[in-house]
Please model this.
Amino acid sequence: MLLVHDGKLRYDEPLTEVFRDFPAYGKAITIRHLLNHTSGLADYEALMEQQERNGGTRWTEENQIQDADVLALLERENKTQFAPGTKWAYSNSGYVLLGLVIGRVSGKPFGDFLRERIFAPLKMNGTLAYERGKNEVSNRAYGHSRVSDKWEQTDQSSTSATLGDGGVYSSLEDLANWDGALASHALRSESEMRSALTPATLASGADAMWPRDSDRPEGTPVSYGFGWFVDPYLGHARMWHYGDTRGFHTYIERFTDEDMTIVVLCNRTDLDPEALAGKISAVIVARQ
Model:
């Protein structure tokens, strides 16, 4: 959105205008499709498993897949899972590509762009895009999983090094600064933010639906803008998202009309942050 504001990028710009060598199927994929998960791109984790089964690279905690590797996997494909814009399906591949788009268009590494344009201006001093060997996360929590009757540290995985889909480390204090910036429109104006909070509609004009094999009932409506789910709760406007990786579960829920945000960060896998946040919102929002 910052690059669109700068006039360096368009939401409806085809992927192949940024990555000239991307296969022809990328001509039908736009930046907007990547932002709202209607691109039809295969999820790179599925492509990793496919390559490993075929005797190709085996990624591990020590040999982690990088953003450039994800791009290479997608460039070996010759089609999307569905025609871009015709369905909705969450794809981490799209956000890895968006991180690469930022690097390509801005001329700066993704992490440097975030630091200069977001983290530093908002005084998010403990937040960074982590790259092993390049920087370190101070005072960080490590992920843990319960195995039998014991807790084990389960932190980095083979996919922990990609950036655009989840490589940012932050803290509650910094997320409070981020939340304040969203509320005050410190980075983008209210009218510019409207694009991010407008649910994706399909090319047919129909509403987007949760697909099979998702964590919601297949065929029920899904409201997703740019990086945020945007369906209301008990009639109250909200924007929210969840995340999980090896040893971690997280959730953020912003009630835009009530100026209230709930953030739950868990570094153990037996907790359900969405359910915990739901208990809080059920009490507080129901009183509004």
